[in-house]
Amino acid sequence: MLLAAILRSPDIRSNNPMKTVIVTGVAGLIGQVTAVRLLEKGYRVIGIDNMNDYYDIRLKEYRLKTLESADRFSFHRIDIEDRTALESIETGSDVTGIINLAARAGVRYSKVNPFVYFSTNTTGTLNLLDFAVKRSLKKFVLASTSSLYAGQPTPFTEDLPVNEPISPYAASKKGAEAICYTYSYLYDLDVTVCRYFTVYGPAARPDMSIFPFIRWIDNGVPITLFGDGSQQRDFTYVDDIAEGTVRALETETGFEVINLGGSKPHELNYIIKLMEDGLGKKAVRDHHPFEKTDMKVTWADISKAKSLLNWEPEVSVEEGIARTITWHKDNRKLVNSIILK
Predict the structure, then answer these.
(1) Do β-strands 44-48 and 236-237 pair in parallel, antiparallel, or remain unpaired?
(2) pLDDT by residue (tens digit) across 18-65?
(3) CA 50, 55, 143: angle at the middle one, nearest 5?
(4) Which whole-number Å values give the CA distances from 5 to 9, 68, 136, 175, in the listed order?
(5) Which is the catalytic residue, given 43, 109, 169, 196?
(6) Is the peptide bond before 155 cis (omega within 30 degrees of 0)?
(7) What radius of gyration, in Å, describes the C-alpha atoms of the chain?
(8) Which residues contact 158 (CB under 8 A, 6 or more apart)?
(9) How many other β-carbons are positioned within 10 Å of the β-carbon of residue 6?
(10) Alpha-carbon torsion (175, 180, 181, 182), positive or negative
(11) Is residue 187 flagged as an active site residue?
(12) Is the pTM of this model over 0.85?
């Protein structure tokens, strides 16, 4: 079935037909795919995004275009830091909750401008929590990060102490998690915090490795590699992340932190090999020193996701990279036009 048809066809299996969900960061990779999943299940979606230019806005416009023709989707170009603008959004009694995917992302850039990370990730989350309470919403889902587990033993379980964030990005997300707990405690707001692990897929962020590596290998340009490629990441395909996020929305948890990850870390060198095999070309490597803010390994224990959300990833990294390369080949003109920073 074509995407446009899917977006107009409520899933009769949905437990919450024709309810409305607010999705912030809807023009981001996870936001767009999550919105599609919600629309497939019969929800209405109010999408929010400030369309900032942290990376080339044409990728955000490309993602947003896939949603704008949907009958049950509306869009507001709003910054979650702007409380007055948030208050202008009209909501009815059918709004079931908020999925907050709006964030300043990028570990390395957070060293350059830490202030915007806290104003968006921490204060922006506070604004949305306040909005939820004032509108008597019952559910709040926060996108958080595996970056909080720096220095902890693997695999990462949610009960590990996350008291030593090694980047402003991680610290800003820790602040967001903390204020989520406070609002859950004070106002009986049901909050699920999803800690994501290295999300990738078609039309992903160009400041993460997957997008530029495929482009560089395809075009014979040396890839910029920090370290020797032995660092391991728990790569998680975006469709799996979106499904887990929707299940978090639909599950009453009280306050819970839940890992959503592939549960099987892979060396970056292996990911590069998958790209080489898929493109039929060899990578030329331009090595740089390992970044101090980067983690050597991420690895999710997803026991809680399995038990509380009945969720586990379905797309292997081999299949996920293959799908991403196919998208790249089908969209070379767009891919090659994107400005990389």
Answers:
(1) unpaired
(2) 699 999 999 999 999 999 999 999 999 999 999 999 999 999 999 999
(3) 60
(4) 6, 13, 33, 40
(5) 169
(6) yes
(7) 19
(8) 195, 256, 257, 258, 259, 301, 304
(9) 13
(10) positive
(11) no
(12) yes
